[in-house]
Every structure is written in structure tokens, then in C-alpha cells.
Amino acid sequence: MSTKVNKFERFYTLCLALGLELNEKDMNHLSNIGSRLTYISKQRCLMAKVKCACVNQDIETHGKFYAARRNKVSIFYAYQILAKRESK
């Protein structure tokens, strides 16, 4: 039981840190967790933000090409992230 609680707490903290709110549908999914973590509608958005943050950090420290290779994304994706960062 404590493993499920720890997974939920980590997931919830990460959602809050990245500015995502869990809605009622997400909370219902989380309360019905069995032996595996079920699909949560915010997971894709959360993972996209995490990947974007990792690529962004690598771009700052090592450059676009290294960031693309290290995070297994295309160089085009790295340029998109760089353009988003510069437009802000």
C-alpha cells in the first residue's frame, strides 16, 4: 500500500511543479489503482513537459545537437524547443 502512496505522491508533486492540475477524472483513476498504474489523462502532457525540460537543459549546457542525440529526439524538435524558449 505504501508503494502506491509513494508513487501517487511523487506523481502529484511532479504535476504541481510543472503546473498541471489533476481533475476529478484523474483522481478517480488514481483511487482505482490495482497492481499497475493505470493510464492517467495528464501523463502524456506531463511526460512531454519533462522531456522538454530535459532537452532545454541540455541545449543550455551542451548545445542543440548533443541535446537531440542524448534525449533521442530529432534536431528539428530541439530547434522547436529553442524557438519556444527564445520567444518567451
Describe this protein with a few key phrases.
5 helices; mainly alpha; elongated; 2 domains; single chain; 88 residues
Give your account of this protein's structure.
This is Chromosomal replication initiator DnaA C-terminal domain-containing protein. It is a single chain. The protein folds into 2 domains: 1-41, no CATH class; 44-88. The protein is elongated, with a radius of gyration of 16 Å. The protein has helices spanning 2-17, 24-31, 43-62, 64-70, 75-87. It has 5 helices and no strands. 7% of the residues are buried.
In short:
The protein is mostly helical and 88 residues long. The protein is built from 5 helices and no strands.
- The fraction of residues assigned to DSSP E strands is under 5%
Count of discrete structural domains = 2
Report helical residue fraction.
over 70%
| Overall mean confidence score, pLDDT | 76
Structural class: mainly alpha
User: How does the overall form come out from the CA principal axes?
Assistant: elongated
H/E element sequence: HHHHH
End-to-end CA span: 43 Å
Identify low-pLDDT runs. none
Number of strands: 0
Individual helix count: 5
Sheet having the most strands: none
The value of Rg in angstroms is: 16 Å
